[in-house]
Write a structure and sequence with these properties.
globular, alpha/beta, Elongation Factor Tu (Ef-tu), domain 3, Rossmann fold, about 250 residues, 6-stranded antiparallel β-sheet, 6-stranded parallel β-sheet, binds flavin-adenine dinucleotide
């Protein structure tokens, strides 16, 4: 049985008008880094359930979620207005297969994200036990503006843990800044800029690509990788070099 359990808001961080992080205390079962929770609220006697990826590593018992407020979105607006000590419900067991265990061993693991899609990677890479399965990890975080780099504090910690084993690049889609990539992931991949800047070639024998966030980005990147690199989505019963987590 996967019951709902109470979750209490213990901290709240408003990053901007439409992005926040919420920190919860709840007696959930241990989850695997990369998984997501299901959150339940009751509004006008109607149950509303949405999925949210954990940002915290499984060792950290404070549950952290990085959330964008959707215009007219029921759950995101509701959560954004909660106060400390308010209670919501969360599923005791977590969900999803966007985990390192499900990625085949290879040379380079590419972790690509848009916006709040950075969450599962932060959880995976903050774990005390370092990932040894890959020679190099490349983390790419696509945001609109530099001011949207809310999780720099954790990114810095990850860099300290993984040192030369990880390459981290931020791409800004709406402004140009020195030392940052500029443009959408799709464009950077299609025109070869991403590989050029990282100084690594994506290869269907040596690389695996994780994609998290905007479903249009995921669809377009899968098409580019299929065309340019003969890379395909991995599923439970099918081998492949792309693993995805689509947020809508
Ligand atoms: C596996 C999984 C993990 C998720 N993890 C997160 C997370 O960590 N953080 C998070 O903010 N959302 C996450 N989501 C999305 C989340 O479940 C909700 O869909 C979102 O909060 C909107 O709910 P709502 O009731 O406010 O809006 P709804 O009325 O349900 O509006 C849904 C619409 O909002 C848009 N939308 C949904 N999510 C996003 C997003 N992240 N960025 C931009 N537009 C979006 C889409 O247009 C979608 O059709 C995840 C979804 C899935 C399936």
């Amino acid at each position: 049985m996967n019951d709902w359990v109470k979750a209490e808001v213990i901290k709240f961080k408003k990053w901007s008008n439409n992005i926040f992080s919420i920190f919860l205390n709840a007696k959930i079962k241990p989850f695997i880094a990369g998984q997501f929770a299901k959150i339940l609220i009751i509004l006008n006697k109607k149950k509303i359930i949405r999925a949210y990826s954990y940002v915290n590593s499984p060792e950290n018992k404070i549950l952290e979620f990085y959330i964008i407020i959707i215009k007219h979105g029921i759950m995101s607006n509701y959560l954004s207005k909660l106060n400390i000590k308010d209670k919501i419900m969360i599923k005791k067991n977590s969900f999803g297969y966007f985990t390192i265990k499900n990625i085949p061993k290879c040379k380079d693991l590419w972790m690509l994200s848009t916006g709040t899609g950075i969450g599962p990677y932060l959880s995976i890479l903050s774990k005390k036990k370092k990932i040894k399965k890959f020679k190099k990890i490349i983390l790419i975080h696509s945001i609109k503006y530099l001011k949207n780099l809310h999780y720099l504090h954790i990114i810095k910690k990850i860099k300290k843990i993984y040192k030369k084993k990880i390459i981290i690049k931020i791409t800004l889609t709406r402004e140009k800044k020195k030392n940052f990539l500029h443009g959408r992931l799709t464009k950077l991949l299609k025109n070869g800029t991403l590989e050029k800047k990282i100084k690594k070639k994506i290869n269907n024998k040596k690389s695996h690509i994780m994609l998290c966030g905007n479903p249009n980005m995921i669809k377009n990147i899968c098409e580019i990788l299929k065309k340019k690199k003969k890379m395909y989505k991995k599923s439970k019963n099918k081998k492949g070099n792309i693993t995805t987590e689509s947020y809508w």
